[in-house]
Write a structure and sequence with these properties.
Helix content is 56%, strand content 9%. The protein has helices spanning 4-7, 20-31, 49-60, 75-86, 107-118, 138-141, 154-168, 174-184, 188-201, 205-211, 217-228, 232-241, 246-264, 276-288, 291-302, 310-320; strands at residues 38-43, 63-68, 95-100, 124-130, 145-149. The N and C termini lie far apart (53 Å).
């Protein structure tokens, strides 16, 4: 069965999810034939940098030369790029070099490319895609237009997930879709992978949590309550019931605290649907404890960073509490 992340890869700018500002800027450059000679696309993995880098040549009827700098990062590779840049196609079409993982090129390789980037042919363009733009030499950054690619907001990812499921003929509960969005961490590619597995497995919430090792957030709220109150026994029962990696659980606990605070301030409100019990639980815990308490708990959880001592650290945190 085809991978959804491959099958649903956008073929034009307006099929992209998110990146609205970047799409408008790029489309204007293409419409006016003013695409800069050197572009740097930077941002987290899975946000669409390489995808848009492949779409641009299609829209310009340009020749695309793609290079993965993670494995082609030598001076000789850079010299080959220079030679290709000098040999314009006989048709006079634009030539676009898409260099993925551009931070992988060595400084020596960038020195070889520098003159070509400084004095480019009008129809030769470089798109440098990277998750770590600060590793690119300043000489290159200073000669490039930079576009940042952002993670996609949760509500936009959820709308996209629902549209994909309808298109593919699957149905999942709101709870499972919300969990899939959480696991995606703002990345469309990861969302599609999680969504496809969930749909093909017809997961309910319990099955999803078990398969992807996602802890039950009700237990997290019980643990939080135990830290701040005398309900230590309930908190300890939750701690002892954790059957996943404790550092992973700790990270999920931190994410849940962020989620509670984002809901409190209506940054990303939780959609409770008809689940009045969940709404009561969430509203109850965010009104019971102060922002300062949540902040201090997050600080203490940051100190839990060793797999061998994680249980002892969480145990101590539970019984020591946070003022």
């Amino acid at each position: 069965m085809a991978e959804w992340a491959v099958e649903l890869r956008p073929q034009n700018l307006y099929q992209m999810v998110g990146q609205e500002a970047n799409r408008e800027i790029i489309q204007k450059w293409i419409d006016t034939d003013t695409l800069p000679n050197t572009l740097i696309f930077y941002g987290r993995s899975g946000t669409g940098k390489t995808t848009i880098g492949r779409i641009i040549p299609k829209l310009m009827d340009a020749e695309l030369i793609e290079l993965d700098a993670a494995s082609n990062n030598s001076v000789d590779d850079a010299r080959q790029i220079n030679e290709q840049a000098l040999r314009l196609s006989l048709t006079g079409r634009h030539k676009i070099f898409l260099i993925d993982e551009a931070h992988g090129l060595s400084n020596a390789a960038y020195q070889v490319l520098l003159k070509t980037i400084e004095e480019p042919h009008p129809k030769v363009h470089f798109i440098l895609s990277t998750t770590e733009y600060t590793k690119l030499p300043m000489t290159i950054r200073g000669r490039a237009r930079m576009l940042k690619f952002y993670t996609v907001p949760k509500e936009q990812l959820k709308e996209y997930a629902e549209a994909v499921l309808e298109h593919k003929g699957y149905t999942l509960s709101d709870e499972v879709i919300d969990l899939a969005v959480e696991q995606a961490n703002g990345q469309v590619r990861d969302l599609l992978k999680v969504l496809q597995t969930s749909a093909e497995g017809n997961f309910n919430e319990k099955q999803f949590r078990k398969f992807f090792a996602v802890p039950d957030d009700r237990g997290m709220r019980t643990f939080i309550n135990g830290v701040f109150t005398t309900a230590k026994k309930s908190g300890l029962q939750i701690l002892n019931s954790i059957d996943t990696d404790l550092l992973d659980w700790k990270t999920e606990l931190q994410k849940h605290i962020y989620k509670l605070l984002e809901h409190k301030y209506q940054v990303t409100p939780i959609n409770f649907g008809n689940n009045l019990s969940l709404e009561k639980q969430i509203e109850g815990i965010i009104s019971k404890f102060t922002d300062t308490q949540f902040g201090r708990l997050l600080t203490e959880l940051n100190k839990v960073d060793n797999a061998q001592t994680a249980y002892a650290q969480l145990y101590a945190l539970l019984f020591r509490g946070v003022e």
